[in-house]
Amino acid sequence: MAVEGEKKTVLEMIQADGADEGCVTFVLHDEDHTLGNSVRYMIMKNVDVEFCGYTITHPSESKINFRIQTRGGIPATEPLRKGLNDLNDVCQHVLNTFQAKVNAFKEGQETSME
């Protein structure tokens, strides 16, 4: 348990002894299916990824075990990083588009009231 003021670990990397860097389990704390399925989808779009899946250990725990296996000796951290960055880009695009439409709607409301 984290002591007050101490930064809590968000991501852990678990690798079996003797396993290569292309086969890793990541543990994401304080997350659920919302992030798990989105990140899994983005990672699976990468052609260098052979397998990507996640499990929620128990419904009362808010952590995800995320397994990534890559082809060609590529470290599993690379597709994870790319998948998170790609998901961030998609979310930013959705946010920008939504905000632009809200602003356009508000401007339309203001001009119709004049």
TrEMBL record:
<dbReference type="GO" id="GO:0006383">
    <property type="term" value="P:transcription by RNA polymerase III"/>
</dbReference>
<feature type="domain" description="DNA-directed RNA polymerase RBP11-like dimerisation">
    <location>
        <begin position="23"/>
        <end position="96"/>
    </location>
</feature>
<dbReference type="InterPro" id="IPR036603">
    <property type="entry name" value="RBP11-like"/>
</dbReference>
<keyword id="KW-0240">DNA-directed RNA polymerase</keyword>
<dbReference type="Pfam" id="PF13656">
    <property type="entry name" value="RNA_pol_L_2"/>
</dbReference>
<dbReference type="InterPro" id="IPR022905">
    <property type="entry name" value="Rpo11-like"/>
</dbReference>
<dbReference type="InterPro" id="IPR008193">
    <property type="entry name" value="RNA_pol_Rpb11_13-16kDa_CS"/>
</dbReference>
<dbReference type="GO" id="GO:0006362">
    <property type="term" value="P:transcription elongation by RNA polymerase I"/>
</dbReference>
<dbReference type="GO" id="GO:0003677">
    <property type="term" value="F:DNA binding"/>
</dbReference>
<dbReference type="InterPro" id="IPR033898">
    <property type="entry name" value="RNAP_AC19"/>
</dbReference>
<protein>
    <recommendedName>
        <fullName>DNA-directed RNA polymerases I and III subunit RPAC2</fullName>
    </recommendedName>
</protein>
<keyword id="KW-0539">Nucleus</keyword>
<keyword id="KW-0804">Transcription</keyword>
<dbReference type="GO" id="GO:0046983">
    <property type="term" value="F:protein dimerization activity"/>
</dbReference>
<comment type="similarity">
    <text>Belongs to the archaeal Rpo11/eukaryotic RPB11/RPC19 RNA polymerase subunit family.</text>
</comment>
<dbReference type="GO" id="GO:0005736">
    <property type="term" value="C:RNA polymerase I complex"/>
</dbReference>
<dbReference type="InterPro" id="IPR009025">
    <property type="entry name" value="RBP11-like_dimer"/>
</dbReference>
<dbReference type="GO" id="GO:0003899">
    <property type="term" value="F:DNA-directed RNA polymerase activity"/>
</dbReference>
<dbReference type="GO" id="GO:0005666">
    <property type="term" value="C:RNA polymerase III complex"/>
</dbReference>
